[in-house]
Amino acid sequence: MTDVATPKTIDSHGLAERLQAANPPRLLDVRTTAEFETAHIPGSYNVPLDLLREHRAEISNTAQAGGAEEWVLVCRSGQRATQAEEALREHGLPNVHILDGGIVDWESKGFKVNRGAAKWDLERQVRLVAGSIVLTSIVGSIAAPKLKWLAGAIGGGLTFAALSNTCAMGMLLSKLPYNRGAGCDVDSVVGQLSSCPASRPR
């Protein structure tokens, strides 16, 4: 039987200490560009999860050639970072950690973040869209009873998302212009990873 590798995690206090080291880890934030622009850990690079998955080999190869000895993946709470770690591990990127609790935990511990214009995070958008569809379906089923099956389909999709640790609705929403930015393409990401050294928060 093949053992399934358990992702390595690092807590917020441990990361804060590592960022002050002579050779600090490089931070890859796998949230959407909109979420990253709202708030991110200083010195981190934005590599949205959908982009990372699609170009995992190129991003992994560029990261390995960049000279950093340690990598930490950041998302809102840890779920997307876990998926990113799996994708990068498949292509041989060594010494990758996941920030336990994500940027939510980092902020709750009082550590610094760079802030921009506030936008809704992806999880909040999923809750809004899913809830709106369910509510509309239930109300609409008074006139068109078959609409109740749409609400059931959304419920089934959310259940599958929880069991599989994936979210198809979230991945679709992440591609909307609201969640994208001018630099959200593989060439920009590869350029950042190949030319910028790891940096400490100030």
Commentary on this structure:
With 202 residues, the chain is an alpha/beta fold. It has two domains: 9-118 and 183-195, Oxidized Rhodanese, domain 1 (3-Layer(aba) Sandwich), CATH 3.40.250.10; 122-166. It has helices at 12-18, 33-38, 49-54, 56-65, 79-90, 102-108, 122-140, 148-164, 168-173, 186-195; strands at residues 8-10, 26-29, 39-40, 45-46, 71-74, 96-99, 114-115. The strands form two sheets. The chain has a five-stranded parallel sheet with strand order 1-6-5-2-4. A two-stranded antiparallel ribbon has the order 3-7. β5, α5 and β6 form a beta-alpha-beta unit. The model has no long low-confidence stretch (mean pLDDT 82).
Q: In CATH terms, what is the fold-level topology of the largest domain?
A: Oxidized Rhodanese, domain 1
Percentage of residues in helical conformation? 40-55%
Spatial strand arrangement across the major sheet: 1-6-5-2-4
Count of DSSP helices? 10
Which spans of ≥5 residues are poorly predicted at pLDDT below 50? Answer: none
What's the gyration radius in Å? 19 Å
- How would you spell out the order of helices and strands? EHEHEEHHEHEHEHHHH
CATH architecture of the largest domain: 3-Layer(aba) Sandwich
Oligomer: single chain
Structural class: alpha/beta
- The tally of structural domains comes to 2
End-to-end CA span: 47 Å
CATH superfamily membership of the largest domain? Rhodanese-like domain
Domain Rhodanese: 21-115
Keywords: Membrane, Transferase, Transmembrane, Transmembrane helix
Transmembrane segments: 126-144, 150-173
Organism: Mycolicibacterium alvei
